[in-house]
Design goal:
This protein has 253 residues and is α+β, with helices and mostly antiparallel strands. 34% of the residues lie in helices and 30% in strands. The strands form 2 sheets. Strands 2, 4, 5, 6, 8 and 9 form a 6-stranded mixed beta sheet that branches. It has a 3-stranded antiparallel beta sheet with strand order 1-3-7, with no helix packed on it. The model is unreliable at 14-26 and 228-234 (pLDDT under 50).
Length: 253
Amino acid sequence: MRLSTFLIPGLCFAAAVVSSVAIAHADSVEPEISVVATFPESNPFNQVVNGDRNQIFLTIENKSDRNVTLQSIGGSFHHPETGTLVKNTTSLTYGVPLLEGAKLQIPYAFHSEFKTGDLRLTIWLDHTTEDEKYRVIAYDSIVTIVEPEISWFDFKLISSYLIVAAMLGGASYYAYLTYFPALKVKNPKRRQEGSAPAATATGASTTGYDEDWIPEHHLKKPKARKTAVSSGEEQPSTGETSATEGRKRKTRK
């Protein structure tokens, strides 16, 4: 009786200790979060284009029996051989809850401005569970940095060239007007043509004086006398005319 009296409470105490340790261990274990990162179908060779908006899709699944919260997604570029950090990508904050057994697909976009070649790209996500923060690697592989393809029918490229050409043309025209003003050409013919109507409008004649105050009979020009010669008569010669005038003078005397 005495042995059973002491044995039963001891077993109960040990079971309580074991259960508490198991619960604490379960709480300290990281929840199982599955993440798969894939490039779009249009990028089968995992190329990263400089200057473009590169995109990768993350499929996230909560396989644990606890609810977690997706906090952020980030990434970084590293040297393919030494693993030296080259540059971090943009970190995006979400704050999306992931319930038990939930599955979610999220696009992640980043930009690249590196030399062409191979780099190691690492993408991760951070999540929290009961005030504990965990990080899961979503992608860790070699990618190829390439330059964008040049197309003569690219609307963005053509519009950029047109805008630059318009700006340069406007600046050149402004500089030409500023430093090389146009010279005024003097045309005497236009001056004479323009002065004639002005003189007529003011009432002055082209003779240079006003004719309004001069009497009309002074303005009339004498008409030239016309000597009518019939067809049958002959015009006297110069010698006959002088002889006739001399005879008339003698008869007058």
